[in-house]
């Protein structure tokens, strides 16, 4: 049980890196801005590293789906703050559906069998 909670913690850390990666990709402007580019590369590596730790315990389908789901929603939220991207009611509804799916996966997941 302890490893299962740790795996979800790793997955949340990976999702934060995923959001930073996506925002950095936009900010780097095709890797033409040095600090955004470095941030993008570091965040990509951090996200994949923590995702790999999470899926040692969680099913890869659940881990990857939650990682991309949280990353997608977080990117939209922070993209609207950092880059002033628009947020419409239909977009918000769709993101709420993604959040519902992520919560559902969390509630119905179990630890992967030990190899």
Automatic annotation (TrEMBL):
Coiled-coil stretches: none
Domain of life, per lineage: Bacteria
Major subcellular location class: membrane
Transmembrane segments: 7-28, 34-55, 62-83, 89-108
Membrane topology: Multi-pass membrane protein
Keyword S-adenosyl-L-methionine: no
Record localization: Cell membrane
Keyword Oxidoreductase appears in the UniProt entry: no
Pfam families: Multi_Drug_Res
Keywords assigned: Cell membrane, Membrane, Transmembrane, Transmembrane helix, Transport
Family to which the UniProt record says this protein belongs: Belongs to the drug/metabolite transporter (DMT) superfamily. Small multidrug resistance (SMR) (TC 2.A.7.1) family.
Protein's recorded name: Quaternary ammonium compound efflux SMR transporter SugE
Species annotation: Saccharothrix mutabilis subsp. mutabilis
Biological classification of the source: Bacteria, Bacillati, Actinomycetota, Actinomycetes, Pseudonocardiales
Gene name of the record: sugE
